[in-house]
Amino acid sequence: MDTARAIVSACGNSFIFRAGIWKPRSRPDTFQGAGEQGLRWLQEVKATFGVPVATEVATPEHVKLALDAGIDYLWIGARTSANPIAVEAIAETIHNAQCTIHNYSLQGVLIKNPVNADAQLWLGNIERLEKTGVPVMAVHRGCNHQPCWAMAHTLRTARPDIPLLLDPSHMSGDAKQVPELLKKIPELGLDGAMVEVHTHPESALSDSKQQIRPNELLGFIGIYPNSSESIGEGVELNWLRAEIDELDDSLWATIAARMEVSKRIGAWKKAHGVAPLQPERYQQILAARQQWAQKSGINAALVERIFDAIHSESVKVQL
Predict the structure, then answer these.
(1) Do 67 and 101 touch, CB atoms closer than 8 A?
(2) Which whole number is the average pLDDT over 217-237?
(3) CATH number for domain 2-231, candidates 3.40.91.80, 3.40.50.970, 3.10.290.10, 3.20.20.70
(4) How far is it, in rounded angstroms, from Cα 292 to Cα 297?
(5) Identical fold, 2-231 and 237-318
(6) Which long-range contacts (CB under 8 A, 24 or more apart) does 8-16 make?
(7) Which of 80, 156, 236, 294 is the most exposed place for a label (fewest CB within 10 A)?
(8) pLDDT band at 144 (very low <50, low <70, confident <90, very high)
């Protein structure tokens, strides 16, 4: 209630208030949500502030309880969307509920990308949910705190008719990175964001490092145009550049990790009286890289220059 009140005070009530009361967590001894009692709290938020409310569902039973409570939106998290059987069961429950629940008020279903970068699975799950007749929105949250822009680009290209939201909180796992990621909304022609907000992130029972405060949210509202206003000739190029930037980040991170291992190799060689440079090892790896270049259709001379530069630096860090 405190968080809802603070958001309304800062930004008005033109948003969907979402709260996960069933939390799929990696470890059983961590907070896994308040459970069914949380539905009453969401009902209170809805009645008090006049905002639609949403919660995450992972099982047909969750769906039934949420719809009985008059929840306006359901969302399917990354762990559940990795399981098409679970999504099929949720979709079937939603479909059946339309005829059996008296106060049925479901306005839409949001589905996050799977934890793995599988665009086809994401698209297939959207199709499963569309069979219910309920509007579907996609939420891009990346994979393992990496953007995975290529996956989102594939979905946007295949289904430009589906609203696509950004989840900068889970994508980064770091509240400080949320403002920068929100800039991707106009750049990529996205339709909005799902952002984690908490009045006191430091005391949150889960995901505290990625939550921003309500007053911080105020700075983001209204400054990013929706996709219908921002889509232009440069949006496709922005998608491709986002993919390149992510690949570059991965490339440099891999090189940095390689140098760290090289340092450990250097320490081992010193301890065992082995020379830093092993010519036969160099030739062995170079030959393997040249074969890879040929199979991959990459210029072998380019591969050799890059490998030589990396190897030379690796030898230096071993000294």
Answers:
(1) yes
(2) 65
(3) 3.20.20.70
(4) 8
(5) no
(6) 8/49, 8/51, 9/214, 10/214, 10/215, 10/217, 10/218, 10/221, 11/214, 11/217, 11/218, 11/221, 13/49, 13/50, 13/51, 15/51, 16/51, 16/52, 16/53, 16/54, 16/72, 16/73
(7) 294
(8) confident
Both tokens assigned to 116: 């793995």
With beta carbons less than 8 A apart as the criterion, state whether 229 and 185 touch: no
Q: How far is CA 300 from CA 245, 248, 283, 286, 307, in A?
A: 24, 20, 14, 10, 10
Helix (H) or strand (E) holding 273: none
Q: Tokens 């030589």 correspond to what residue?
A: 308
Residue 22 DSSP class: S
Residue pair 170/192 in contact (Cβ under 8 Å)? The answer is no
Instruction: Name the one residue in this structure whose structure tokens are 């790896």.
Output: 285
Quote the pLDDT of residue 223. 53
- 116 close to 146: Cβ distance less than 8 angstroms: no
